[in-house]
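Review this chain:
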Amino acid sequence: GRAEGEPQLWSRVAFVGGVITLVFGAIAGIADGALAFGAENIDDGSMQALMYVSLYGFTNLAFAAGLFMLAASLVIWQTGALWRWTGVLGAIAGLLAVISLLGILDESSDDIFDILGFFGFIGLALWLLTISICMLLMQEEPVAAARRQT
């Protein structure tokens, strides 16, 4: 946010996307945990409902992670606060993850949208690794573009 300057719009969108990612991850994880530990004690209808909660939780998780990556990558690209190519990597992975939300429209769990979501998650892992390395190597805290020019 400091590198972006006021009103820090895209930094805030990235923050909200990150929080929503955690929420959907928890929802999907809870459903999977209930399936893993209670599969022998629940009826078929309940099992199917938990499977749908898990599916939609992970699908929405990919969308939220994509929103997080797209917004943060836009800030990275605009400000140069981190390596600019990490902004490109995050934008590509984020776009794949956001598009994967369309998988909800199809009842199949193995369509092209799920494959895009998979590559979005791989991209998220690579993106987080690269920006973490970049942040560890930084000598100074980034400043807003308006203050950099003066």
In short: The mean pLDDT is 82.
